[in-house]
Write a structure and sequence with these properties.
Layout (H helix, E strand, L loop, with lengths): L17 E2 L53 E2 L1 H7 L11 H10 L3 H25 L8 H6 L19 H6 L14 H18 L4 H10 L1 H14 L12 H18 L11 E2 L4 E5 L4 E2 H8 L3 H7 L7 E2 L4 E5 H13 L10 E3 L5 E4 L6 H7 L4 H7 L13 E3 L2
Antiparallel strand pairs: 1-4, 2-3, 4-7, 5-6, 8-9, 9-10
Helix pairs in contact: 2-9, 6-7, 7-8, 7-9, 10-11
């Protein structure tokens, strides 16, 4: 997890709704290994529903990527390994070999984990290519979280990139009761790659030091280098006197990169990646409810939130960037652009004078759903507000959060 890394670039404007255009080279659609893994056991996004029907109307919206009529295999893994910048996989040290074996002790499960993360990996791979950063960094969120959008409270890391609150705010992410930018995969990826670029400048593009600094913090690595120089010791990254966790963090990233380059070495068959499921960004032109955006995209709200987990407050702000699979994005863009936004249903959390937080009840909410949303027990929520299990909540009612 970083102790410290926003700018979405290259978005091509479309009428009303903007579909982000990719300036990185397009991956060739080449045949991939024959076996397709079974669904992962690790919080895998379910397969998206079929694209929404073509919306009625005469307004034309030009999409940057045509919908695929079939499900072509992406050459994602070969593109990533072709852009390796600093990991030597031909003769890796024993520590890297050890973690190769650990990750691939069950080749099938590791392939499933790769397949589950592949829609997000594809997005990060394109962003790394756009910034001319080493492709090995697609594995950084895998090391940190296996690409899971972890939620936390207090001064703890969160999101797929596992950024600390102070680091996230330093890199321009907003963290509030109703929104955490670390869970916004587009914003968080920009912030993390901004941080990597910053660290690359600080450490003269020594990518091993950059990776260690992402985990331990810039000043810890600077301090370790200064102490090594002062005592006449080696300043090689693997010799620095820093936490074993930081050394292992770098080793894990190297091992993941080498498994993908030489899968046969650990008996792994790389999973086939369906290019139509790779995630692509689009800008929402007007504030809209999550439920409406999901319906216009032709999927359920829970599926939509797997792709866009930061927007659990019930609505998406005007101008925000969301992610949708390539199979859905063109028609979703058109449907959303033509839709009239429904009245915004806000899930409000307020802070009262003594620092206590209150939740403002909205239509359709129950004490159970509110307790689950804020990760508190139902009994504690009821007790804090003098309520019983049979109590009826009213829209606009304010409940203290224990």
């Amino acid at each position: 997890m970083p102790d410290h890394g926003l700018a979405w670039r290259g978005l091509a404007l479309l009428p009303l709704l903007t579909l982000a255009a990719c300036t990185a080279p397009t991956r060739p659609e080449a045949p991939a290994p024959a076996t397709t893994p079974a669904p992962s056991e690790t919080a895998a996004p379910s397969k998206p529903a079929a694209p929404a029907p073509e919306p009625a109307g005469d307004d034309a919206v030009v999409a940057t990527e045509p919908l695929a009529e079939s499900s072509p295999a992406s050459d994602l893994w070969s593109e990533i390994t072709s852009r390796h910048g600093f990991v030597d996989c031909e003769d890796p040290p024993p520590a890297v070999r050890r973690w190769e074996r650990i990750y691939a002790q069950s080749p099938k499960r590791h392939a499933e984990a790769m397949a589950t993360a592949s829609p997000w990996i594809a997005y990060v791979a394109d962003e790394l290519a756009r910034r001319d950063l080493p492709a090995e960094y697609v594995w950084l969120p895998f090391v940190e979280s296996r690409y899971h959008a972890f939620r936390t409270r207090g001064e703890r890391p969160a999101g797929a990139w596992q950024m600390m609150p102070a680091t996230a705010r330093w890199r321009g992410l907003r963290i509030a009761d109703d929104y955490d930018g670390r869970l916004d995969f587009v914003a968080a990826t920009d912030a993390a790659l901004d941080l990597i670029e910053h660290l690359a400048t600080v450490f003269d593009r020594d990518w091993s030091l950059v990776t260690m600094a992402y985990n331990a913090g810039e000043y810890r690595i600077k301090g370790a280098l200064a102490r090594a120089r002062k005592s006449g010791q080696s300043t090689r990254p693997e010799h620095l006197a820093v936490s074993p966790i930081t050394h292992e963090h770098l080793v894990k990233l190297r091992a993941l990169a080498c498994i993908t380059r030489h899968p046969q070495r650990v008996g792994l068959t790389l999973p086939t990646v369906d290019v139509t499921q790779e995630l692509r960004p689009a800008i929402v032109p007007k504030a809209m409810n999550v439920s409406q955006l999901a319906a216009l995209s032709g999927v359920g709200e829970s599926q939509w939130l797997l792709w866009n987990p930061a927007w659990r407050r019930g609505h998406v702000d005007a101008g925000a960037t969301i992610l949708l699979p390539r199979a859905l994005i063109e028609r979703s863009v058109e449907a959303i652009a033509r839709a009239t936004p429904e009245p915004i249903e806000r899930r409000a959390v307020e802070t009262i004078g003594n620092g206590e937080r209150v939740h403002v009840v909205r239509s359709g909410e129950s004490a159970w759903s509110i307790a689950r949303r804020h990760r508190v027990s139902l009994s504690a929520l009821l007790a804090a507000n003098g309520l019983g299990k049979a109590s009826v909540l009213r829209p606009g009612q304010k409940l203290r959060l224990p």
